[in-house]
Amino acid sequence: MEKHMRRNFYLRMKELSEAQRLVLESYPWSEALRPEEIDVRQADGRVTAQALFARRSLPSFNAAAMDGFAVRAEETFRASDLNPLTLKIGQQAIAVNTGDPIPQDKDAVIMIEDVHFPTKETIEIRKPAYPWQHVRKVGEDLVAGELMFTSGHRLAPWDLGALLAAGHLKILVKERPRVIFIPTGDEILPAEKAEDHLLAQGKTVEFNSTVLSALVEQWGGEAEIWPIVPDDYTALRQALYKALEERPHLIAILAGSSAGSKDYTAALVKEQRLLLHGVAIMPGKPVIFGLVKDTPVFGIPGYPVSAVMAFETLVRPVFEAMLGAGLPPRPKVKAFSARKVPSRLGLTEFLRVKVGEVAGKRVFLPVKRGAGVISTLTRAEGIVRIPPHSEGILPGEQMEVELLRPERRLENTVLVVGSHDLALDLLAHFLHQRAPKYDLSLAHVGSLSGILAVRDGLAHMAGTHLFDPETGEFNIPYLKRYLKEPIARLVHFAWREQGLLLPKDNPKGIKSLRDLARKDVRFINRQPGSGTRVLLDYYLQKEGLRAEDIRGYETEETTHLGVAIAVATGQADVGLGIKAAAKLLDLCFIPLFRERYDLLVRNDFWETEAFAYIYEILREETFAREVEKLGGYDVAERGKILF
């Protein structure tokens, strides 16, 4: 099997539209699903396999549409306020309830509210009825023989009622598309076997199959997850051919689709007919499609976000082709970019974004872009598609956003940008408990970028802790420099402890900033424009240290937790961050200085109900105690207006 151990290369890289066309045209998807007969009561969401015609008229008789009296319209034409008309009950006027049949010699209903009773045997009316007034005529809804639904119609709950009323008890629908998932990889474990000591040794939980299976079921299919197959060509081949015996509509092999020495899917499919290896999308490039024994086989990337993007862009259209019915589209809105977003030419990028409505316009901010970071989907409100001919998005550029959340929530989404802080997650939790209709959406872009976003109407609030070396003051000098008009207020949130984050027991004996210049020490930094980076550069200068003296100075993370994780996992020996991040990951912490962390709030947001809740929570003792439990916070002056 040595030929399968060599490193692969992308054999047939295609642009997205070309790849989608190739997949759809290379297999008779419209003929893949057989019809099956099911009870109408079980047909919600199913797709019709034939045209359905009404077997009876609906209603099948002339029916009263109101409570009142059935009359013959021409016998009422003389009625008026000046000339009230009296009709005999049981002869000229027949009492009916809504839904009752109308007597054959009657053609109108007078509502009970329009009737007077001069005697027990008569009614009096003061205006005439017109023919078929308040009457549902035979076939008003459906006429026997009328087309109700074409083939390929996805049935809704109300459709089931119409079918039953029109005489259908059983109908033919298309069978559900069946998908077999085969997860692969030496490094993955089923969730129920993922013990901490195994994860610490480099194992990871296999969850892609669960995510993609949920998509299959959401699209109207049935999914079956097979046991994990190790990185072994023979074992994978055996699993694939065993799956073929089950005659699914398609098979998805998870991971092993890239160009590594242990990625066997392409070679395995190539034994029969490999049609596609690599699509120019990001994330999701290493995707495979081919036919094995005339069964469609997809190779799906192992990184979770890549897996979702590849599956949605290539397999979702396949489901629509098989079912002959479109899947419900996600809502799309126009929004303005709150910052510059570079992108690679030649690739269609699916950018996960935060979305909110600020100062009357919708704006978005990107979240992390890693293909392996599933939280970029769980925390995103939408996806922006950057076309392959673009080098990225400019600040203020309007783009189309495909929403992952209901559109109605956008106006109640509070967009908070700027510096990262763990206590903001607590604030989001408290706000959702207090006022569930509001969401605090956090995007970490650094203090300075946060100030500029608030200034430019691209965020409601920003967290900031920018230190000014000239004045020794936090934040206010920068506001005076960048906010030429009084468009926002600065509210104190907390004093925080910043210091060195180190592995537990501090194995390299690091004691101060001067140790960062040691050749055996690897540092992890924060991004330019962040308050932590400004503080670091200031104190390095005081110590007489240069950036080039520090190994890892150019390696950056965008959050305190990112720095802490890098230290905890051995990617770095030391980083600069807040005490709360060290406490959360059980790291050693050497305090260096205190800093003031404030919230910059737009004036137009200050007056809203949402901020009233936020400000109320900010000043509560219960919230203060929870923040202090995080470690390294002093919130005694929280809520004080500083600027």
What is the topology?
Elements: H1 16-25, E1 35-39, E2 52-53, E3 63-64, E4 68-71, E5 85-88, E6 94-96, E7 108-111, E8 122-125, E9 135-136, E10 147-149, H2 157-165, E11 170-174, E12 178-183, E13 188-189, H3 196-199, E14 204-205, H4 208-218, E15 222-225, H5 233-244, E16 250-254, H6 265-270, E17 273-277, E18 281-282, E19 288-292, E20 295-300, H7 304-323, E21 332-337, E22 341-342, E23 348-358, E24 361-366, H8 375-378, E25 382-386, E26 392-393, E27 398-403, E28 413-418, H9 422-434, E29 439-442, H10 447-455, E30 461-464, E31 467-468, E32 473-474, H11 476-482, E33 488-502, E34 523-526, H12 531-542, E35 556-557, H13 560-568, E36 574-578, H14 579-584, E37 588-602, H15 603-606, H16 609-618, H17 621-630, E38 633-634
Parallel strand pairs: 12-15, 12-16, 13-14, 16-20, 18-23, 21-24, 28-29, 28-30, 34-35, 34-36
Antiparallel strand pairs: 1-11, 2-10, 3-9, 4-6, 4-7, 5-8, 17-19, 19-20, 21-27, 22-26, 23-24, 23-25, 25-27, 30-37, 31-32, 33-36, 33-37, 33-38
Helix pairs in contact: 1-7, 4-7, 9-16, 9-17
Give a structural overview:
With 643 residues, the protein is of the alpha/beta class. The protein is built from 17 helices and 38 strands. α1 packs across α7 (304-323), α9 packs across α16 (609-618) and α9 packs antiparallel against α17 (621-630). The termini are far apart. It folds into four domains: 2-31 and 177-323, Molybdenum Cofactor Biosythetic Enzyme, Chain A (3-Layer(aba) Sandwich); 35-58 and 141-174, Alpha-Beta Complex (Molybdopterin biosynthesis moea protein, domain 2), CATH 3.90.105; 63-136, Molybdopterin biosynthesis moea protein, domain 3 (Molybdopterin biosynthesis moeA protein, domain 3), CATH 2.170.190; 447-634, D-Maltodextrin-Binding Protein, domain 2 (3-Layer(aba) Sandwich), CATH 3.40.190.290. The strands form eleven sheets. Strands 28, 29, 30, 33, 34, 35, 36, 37 and 38 form a nine-stranded mixed sheet that branches. The longest helix has 20 residues, at 304-323.
